[in-house]
Write a structure and sequence with these properties.
Blueprint lengths: L4 E3 L4 E3 L7 E2 L7 E4 L24 E2 L7 E20 L18 E5 L12 E5 L11 E17 L15 E11 L2 E2 L4 E2 L39 E2 L5 E2 L23 E2 L5 E2 L24 E2 L5 E2 L24 E2 L5 E2 L3 E2 L5 E2 L22 E2 L5 E2 L21 E2 L5 E2 L5
Antiparallel strand pairs: 1-2, 3-10, 4-6, 5-10, 6-9, 6-10, 7-8, 7-9, 11-12, 13-14, 15-16, 17-18, 19-20, 21-22, 23-24, 25-26
Protein name: F5/8 type C domain-containing protein
GO molecular function: scavenger receptor activity
InterPro entries: EGF, FA58C, Galactose-bd-like_sf, MEGF10/SREC1/2-like
Amino acid sequence: MKIHVSVGISTLFLLEYYHCYENLCRRNSTTVLQSSTYKNQEETLATDGDLRTNYRYCAHTDVNQTVAWFQVDLGKPHSISNVTLYYRKDGLGNNEWQPYRFRQFYLDVSDLPASQKTTAHRTRCYTDNTTHPDVLPHIIDIPCKHTARYVIVETTYDAPEDNPTTGAILEICEIEVYGCETGEYGDDCKPCSECKTCDVNNGICDCFSMCINQTCDGTSGHCTFGCETGYWGSTCASLCPDKCQDQKCFRDNGLCETCEPGHWGIHCNHTCSSFCNKNMCNQSNGGCSKGCIMGKYGDICDNACSQGCVRGSCDSQSGTCSEGCHQNMMGTRCDRCDSTHYGLNCSKKCSVNCTVGCTKDTGVCYSCVKGKFGEYCDKTCGSGCVSGCDQYTGKCVCKLGWQSDRCEGMRIELK
């Protein structure tokens, strides 16, 4: 059981009554995280059940930060009733350490963690407006009747008492989040009757805050007029995928209407090829819709134009060189040497004894002029060959009186 302490904007009211809501922070499935840590004052000090508010018992974010946050992750959405915070307050009497760094904090609940860059998905339960030199009570209880997974305490306040300045700091000695499992309500956490979530006090079906006009069917909880931008589902409780254009998705299935530039897929979770022109691609298949950057071609622009293309320019679909070929190169893609050259960039000249050119990489002749043989046509057929010789072996038919395979020696006649 929990004594409920409620806080107004600047005055603490003590309302003592008892309820049976569970402190969800004490569950094994609940985890905590803070934006940074000062020395060894880790976040788990705020959920260890020790309610002392001296420095050594408190979680403490690091100094010189522009924003400080503390997050409770309940593991899954729960029906939250209230959140109690115990802030640092050391010493006794006039010399005690006052909770001046506690001013102007805010308490949010969300289905996304505190590390998300935008806060549009959060629901604000409380914002403190206390200003210097006043301080708020160091123990406060905040009503927060929402269904959510994350509870986030955050501040950007830089207390003037810190001289020199130390930036935004949180010093939370204990945090208690009271509530029920999602779909339960009341002091004894009875099941909601006909809807997934309901008012934690009376069991009336909730309208999720992202219903347009916050209007829904009182029995089912289904949003009457649809969802606010960025949400989908019958109760508008689900977020549209992160890369949907303008955060818009179809209410019935959560698929993106269109993707942000540079993304594709039904959930826009795939990245367009970095070679797509203007980073634009087809939403259904990722094909580059505006062509390719210079030097690339293919459906997703993952093929390189031939080095033989002038300025590396080729058609984005076929790879045909747009501005012709470099010297000594030929073909629609300028990927072949002309009949008289070979080697890298076709910079070497074929042997003058090649008749129809040579191989691009090695310069081996396709055929030789009459009287020559060998890979490079640099060898001479035997003098006794009737009509040339084999291009590869040099063998030939001999004239009368000549002998050997290559007809290189005359037969000697004995008289």
